[in-house]
Design brief:
Elements lengths: L9 H21 L9 H9 L10 H12 L11 E2 L8 H13 L6 H4 L1 H17 L5 E5 L2 H18 L5 H7 E5 L5 H9 L7 E3 L10 H13 L3 E8 L11 H11 L2 E6 L23 E5 H4 L7 E5 L38 H11 L1 H23 L4 E3 L7 E6 L6 H18 L3 E7 L2 E7 L7 H19 L5 H11 L1
Parallel strand pairs: 1-11, 3-4, 3-5, 5-6, 6-7
Antiparallel strand pairs: 2-8, 7-8, 9-10, 10-12, 11-12
Helix pairs in contact: 1-3, 4-13, 6-13, 7-9, 10-11, 15-16, 15-17
Amino acid sequence: MLDLLTRSTADTYRSLIAQTSAQVADRFEATTQPFSGASRAELQMLVDDVALDGEGVGSSQAVREIDELFLEHAVWFHHPAYAAHLNCPVALPAVAAESVLAAVNTSVDTYDQSAVGTLIERRLIGWAADRIGFAHGSGVFTSGGTQSNLHALLLAREAAMAATPLPRPRALARLVIFATTSSHFSVGKSALLLGLADDAVVAVADDGQGRMDADALALAMREVAASGRLPMAVVATAGTTDRGVIDPVDAIADVCDEHGVWLHVDAAYGCGLLVSQRRRHLLAGVERARSVTIDFHKSFFQPVSSSAILVREPRDLAAGAWHADYLNPLENDEPNQVDVSLQTTRRFDALKLWVTLRALGADRIGDMFDTVIDLAETVGDEIAADPELELVGRTQLSTVLFRVQPEGVDDRTRDALVAGVRRVLFESGRALVAKTVIDGRPSLKLTLLNPATTLDDIRQILAMVKDAATTLAGIAPEFDEALAGAEASA
């Protein structure tokens, strides 16, 4: 019997999925920390010891190995001591939908491969566009914020090229993207992939807290135009990765409108505000953008991957269209979404969001996002009041930046402690926090995206941070040099 999912193997499928779901459920019940703490050498040995070229061991045994190899050493985003990156616990109905996606294996690139799947995705795109404020908007699901930003900047590039009489090679070399240094790394990466000049991304000054200064943007545009270069796009960020702050989109849109420049809003992180009943105003002006990035797998609590690019004018998507007779011929009037996507084969990730909205409702999702923002505000207050900790700025979303400052240590030592503390916590597996650099100085970062996490949970993490810092600060006179070296290699 073939080990493929067919009518004849439906019973085997039931058994295998039951075994798999039981293993995962058992791990969720038994997991006591976000990571096992196993070293990379130990994990490498476990992976290398698996024979991939021998006889198969059978489906049931292979699934058992998932538990022993992967689940035993997975990083668990649902655990309250996980507070490192923009990873969220996932909504149960979305997990159920994910199992359907894997089994049916729909690809939504063409209508004849997906039928109702295409219509469901199109309906969700329309729903998200309405939430933004696009009266007749369109878009498409993507693999994540990086692809959404790349797609948006491709469309912006083509719009700028169409508006200039210069030959394409000369125009391409003169195009400029405006963003702050807090914008996502995918902005610079997209400029590279789009064939722009090495200095195509112009850094716009911020307000000292990571938000773009609209007046500085206007000045930068005038300077760029005076130099003979061509403003192509402005990337405003609605939720910077580190600070969790939101650029003043309305004021930025005023500048873009005055100069006729494409405005893209990267709301990969802050998109949960679209369904917030208390903080929707933080996205004021987003409806004036030409394109918007949304990551449902961040603040809508969806399994990876679930993202989208939305555009105000559906015709803008035509700039990325490509046709093939075997796939989406020009004379075909079916709604083939490959016409508006950078991908060909593409998962039906919209189903997860559809089921979540039907199960929970949009307001409930917004309440969950508000909950983690509320927690971040309270944690910020606690850190600001703790003499052993230093709060680094305030967030508008759910990140918390801070440093440790044990008594009697200087700034250089405090900086060196950041990498050491993060490493100690990671290697123990008891808690996961992130590190970054703010205004030239290293900082620890909590990213709170778990609505079930409590203030007491975060207090325990902070206690571990302080204990690790105190221990490291007292181990030897030369510890700061050792930690500085660890920071450089981390």
